[in-house]
Amino acid sequence: MSDESVLIEFDNVQKVYPNGTVGLKDINLKIHEGEFVAVVGLSGAGKSTLLRTINRMHDITGGDLKIDGASITGYKGKELRNLRRSVGMIFQDFNLVNRSSVRRNVLSGRVGYYSTWKSSLGLFSAEDKQRAVDALKRVNMLEKLYTRVDELSGGQQQRVAIARALMQEPKIMLADEPIASLDPLTTTAVMDDLLGLNQELGITVLANLHSVSLAMKYADRIIGLRGGQLVYDKPIAEVSADDFDGIYSEQAEIKGGAVNG
Ligand SMILES: Nc1ncnc2c1ncn2[C@@H]1O[C@H](COP(=O)(O)OP(=O)(O)OP(=O)(O)O)[C@@H](O)[C@H]1O
């Protein structure tokens, strides 16, 4: 793929947490616009850390991270707000406001575009109210517009979280173990939603997944982490199931022994 289509670039990225734990080590990685990348690896491999450096939920401690060719490492104030608007994120535990309605939760995805006082009073424009309806339609949740979030199933809540992230009009969607709390049926619905926004809206998706078979079904590229290092990176056409036997058994071996993290 051409270098012009590089959207996210990790250049020798390091992340050491304040307590000394190494989260990421020498990561060199280019993600292209429109890719659906699955990040696999055992627990503690650094998958969440990798995702969270992209929206600066975690600051890196070495190297550089670029989005659209610009280093985001020193972003503050307006630049940081703009970065966070352009990067949507969903989480394993959904992170919704349970006692509020679906509509209110989805509209809250738009707060990055409002002054604090307007959003705290719920003064959203007609255009944004329509945007919320459209986002909910996309994930088949419009009928729940006025339902309280705590009356929804896990899968429905994750779909609301996707709609909320879509309100930001993101270029990038980070999905941190998006289906880890869901049953197989709702897993398919949520993964199909992510695939839809990748293929239909052109949003670049990075999803941390424990399931290799889901990674193979949905992603067009798989990267593997172990002990904070990038140990695997292949387009889906070149991936074989044996690769994962290798990666996971090797990981298990190393985790039991030499490598910290
Ligand atoms: N806030 C933190 N402070 C210190 N260490 C942390 C922090 N967050 C994560 N770590 C450590 O960094 C390493 C990578 O963690 P990370 O959560 O990125 O892994 P992961 O692959 O996403 O794991 P999981 O699948 O369990 O979520 C682990 O050793 C973890 O304990």
List the helices and strands and how they pair.
Elements: E1 6-16, E2 22-32, E3 36-40, H1 47-54, E4 62-67, E5 70-71, H2 77-86, E6 87-91, H3 102-108, H4 116-120, H5 126-138, H6 154-166, E7 172-176, H7 184-201, E8 204-208, H8 212-218, E9 221-226, E10 229-235, H9 241-256
Parallel strand pairs: 3-8, 3-9, 6-7, 7-8
Antiparallel strand pairs: 1-2, 1-4, 4-5, 9-10
Helix pairs in contact: 3-6, 5-6, 6-7
Bound molecules: adenosine-5'-triphosphate.
Residues 17, 19, 21, 23, 41, 43-49, 261 line the site of adenosine-5'-triphosphate.
Protein model, in words:
Keywords: ATP-binding, Cell membrane, Membrane, Nucleotide-binding, Phosphonate transport, Translocase, Transport. This is Phosphonates import ATP-binding protein PhnC. Pfam families: ABC_tran. Residues 8-252 form the ABC transporter domain. Helix content is 37%, strand content 24%. It has a domain at 1-78 and 174-179 and 205-261: P-loop containing nucleotide triphosphate hydrolases (Rossmann fold, 3-Layer(aba) Sandwich), CATH 3.40.50.300. The protein is α/β, with parallel strands linked by helices. A hairpin with a 5-residue loop joins strand 1 and strand 2. Helix 3 (102-108) packs parallel to helix 6 (154-166) and helix 6 packs parallel to helix 7 (184-201). The strands form 2 sheets. Strands 6-7-8-3-9-10 form a 6-stranded mixed beta sheet, with helices on both faces. The protein has a 4-stranded antiparallel beta sheet with strand order 2-1-4-5, covered by helices on one side. The structure holds adenosine-5'-triphosphate (ATP). Adenosine-5'-triphosphate binds at residues 17, 19, 21, 23, 41, 43-49, 261.
